[in-house]
Structure formats: C-alpha cells, structure tokens
C-alpha cells in the first residue's frame, strides 16, 4: 500500500513539474522562484517518505502545507524586493535615515511573518502526526536543511568559487 501511495505521489509531482515547465515556457518565471518551488516539492516528497505519512494524513497535511508554502513564497518575494530596494538606497548618498528605517521595518516584518508561517505549519503538522512521526519530523528538518546547505555550497563553489556558508 505504501509503495502504491509513494508511486502516486511521485507521478503527481512529475505531472505538476512537467506542467509547470510547459507553463514556464509561456510565462517565464525567475530562476530563483522555480528553484524555491522545486525545493518545496522535493521537501514534501521526502517528508512523505521519511515520516511514513498515511494517505489520510497526506489528505489533511498537503493542502495546508502547500497553502502555507505559497504564502511564504509571496513573503519571500516581498523580502527580495525590499532587499533590492535597500541596496539601491544604500548607494544613494542623499537617502534619508527615515527611508532606510522604513525599509528595514518592512524587511523585519516580512521575516517575522515567514517565521510565523513556519510555526503555523509545524503546529498543524504536530496535530496530525504521531509521536514517532513528530520525532522523525524534527530530525528530517535538521537533515534536510543541512543537506540543502551543503548542496548550495557545492553549487556556489563550482559556479563562482565563492566561500561556503558556515554554520
């Protein structure tokens, strides 16, 4: 049963990724956004496997997880735009401190909202997971983020010879 469920999830993800790539050809999406969406998809797939999520749990968890992740993507876009604006502002010698403070407040607010979304997702997951799954979830998050950091470091070093991100 689990094998069938995992195959179904994989096929669904492959379908949506291929549909997204066709859509992306008509509607170019910035590369970063596509990468973020792919990471989210990969994380949910691996989460399903690592926690042995049942079909019933998946039916409850995935719609909420997708909703929260979409909201976080919107907030991350806001943060990216605010960071870009802040960089421009810092290059302008005539910029006023009040303008910088306003932009900093917007950045802090977006960052806080992302943290709140993460907490909302964790609380939702905890209410739908068994004790063993909760423990596996904590370990999964740590290992997934460490693996992601290592992969990004390797890619960064190969592409630009930048120094790796440290713990």
Give the tally of β-strands. Answer: 0
**Which CATH C-level class is it?**
Mainly Alpha
Radius of gyration: 19 Å
What is the H/E order?
A: HHHHH
* CATH third-level topology: Four Helix Bundle (Hemerythrin (Met), subunit A)
Strand content: under 5%
Structural class: mainly alpha
Main sheet attributes: strand count, strand direction, barrel closure: none
> What's the tally of helices?
5
Outline, from the CA principal axes?
Answer: globular
Total domain units = 1
**Mean residue pLDDT:** 82
Task: Write structural notes for this entry.
The protein is globular and about 60 Å long. The model is unreliable at 21-26 (pLDDT under 50). It is mainly α. The chain is built from five helices and no strands. The termini are far apart. Helix 2 (31-51) packs antiparallel against helix 3 and helix 2 (31-51) packs antiparallel against helix 5. It has a single domain (30-160), classed as Up-down Bundle (Four Helix Bundle (Hemerythrin (Met), subunit A)), CATH 1.20.120. 87% of the residues lie in helices and 0% in strands.
What descriptors fit this protein?
single chain, mainly alpha, Four Helix Bundle (Hemerythrin (Met), subunit A), 5 helices, globular
Give the helix/strand layout.
Blueprint: H1 2-26, H2 31-51, H3 55-91, H4 97-128, H5 131-160
């Amino acid at each position: 049963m689990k094998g069938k469920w995992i195959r179904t999830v994989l096929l669904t993800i492959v379908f949506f990724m291929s549909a997204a790539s066709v859509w992306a050809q008509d509607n170019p999406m910035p590369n970063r956004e596509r990468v973020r969406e792919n990471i989210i998809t990969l994380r949910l797939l691996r989460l399903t496997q690592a926690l042995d999520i049942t079909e019933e749990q998946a039916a409850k968890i995935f719609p909420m997880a997708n909703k929260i992740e979409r909201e976080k993507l919107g907030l991350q876009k806001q943060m990216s735009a605010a960071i870009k604006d802040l960089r421009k502002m810092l290059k302008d010698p005539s910029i006023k401190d009040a303008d910088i403070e306003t932009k900093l407040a917007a950045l802090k607010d977006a960052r806080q909202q992302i943290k709140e979304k993460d907490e909302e997702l964790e609380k939702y997951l905890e209410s739908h997971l068994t004790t063993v799954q909760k423990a596996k979830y904590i370990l999964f998050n740590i290992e997934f983020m460490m693996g992601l950091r290592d992969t990004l470091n390797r890619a960064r070093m190969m592409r630009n010879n930048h120094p790796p991100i440290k713990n």
